[in-house]
């Protein structure tokens, strides 16, 4: 599962550059020394990964409850089906996964806080920028969060989302250093390929739920609870 998380993060990173790149470029680090700039960018991305991990931890409790009910494999299949449905829903599916109306006030508050933090120069503000950035609506983060439920527990859910955040780190760090590093055409091509990649992740989750063994990436081997017979 963690292979999937990192790959999803890596593949979605160019989309992240398009959506969150302006925030990364506006980080108050450009007047600092090279090493201070690097440290600030790392703190910002660590903040994003921390938020992702916390969200994965919370959703992991849902997965754990379903796992205890004996529904782990059904959960994996259901997660894959939901992801396939999201991909099939529209050719512009990422745009369709916008902000639910009941969350819009919260998003406006987050954006206001981001604007305030961008004018502060402390390293703690850079970390807070990342944590709030991680709460902004994003279709690909939604897909990763749905997948994290299928891990079946809070710890694995947190690790899954932290690994997803790690996958976005190279591109998001690079764009903070070099403006216009990724061309519009490159980001557009990556965006066109993302539905296909998400579909692959969805299929792997479905196969995982169908107990297709022999693939280490599926991650369900040897998870059965041992039962003792005759006192042994």
Task: Describe, in plain words, how this protein is organized in 3D.
This protein is mainly α. 72% of the residues lie in helices and 0% in strands. The protein has one domain (2-213). Helix 5 runs antiparallel to helix 6 (123-133).
The whole-number mean of residue pLDDT values reads 78
Report the β-strand fraction as a percent range. under 5%
Choose one word for the global shape. globular
Q: What class do helices, strands and sheet pairing give?
A: mainly alpha
Number of domain modules = 1
Radius of gyration, rounded?
Answer: 19 Å
Helical coverage, percent range: over 70%
- What is the H/E string? HHHHHHHHH
Number of helices: 9
**End-to-end separation:** 33 Å
Regions with little confidence, pLDDT below 50 for 5+ residues: 213-217, 220-229
Q: Can you count the beta strands?
A: 0
Main beta sheet strand tally, sense and closure: none
Keywords: Membrane, Transmembrane, Transmembrane helix
Organism: Runella defluvii
InterPro entries: UreH-like_TM_dom
Protein name: Urease accessory protein UreH-like transmembrane domain-containing protein
Brief overview:
This protein has 9 helices and no strands.
Task: Spell out the key features of this protein.
mainly alpha, globular, 72% helix, transmembrane helix, 232 residues, UreH-like_TM_dom, Urease accessory protein UreH-like transmembrane domain-containing protein, 0% strand, membrane
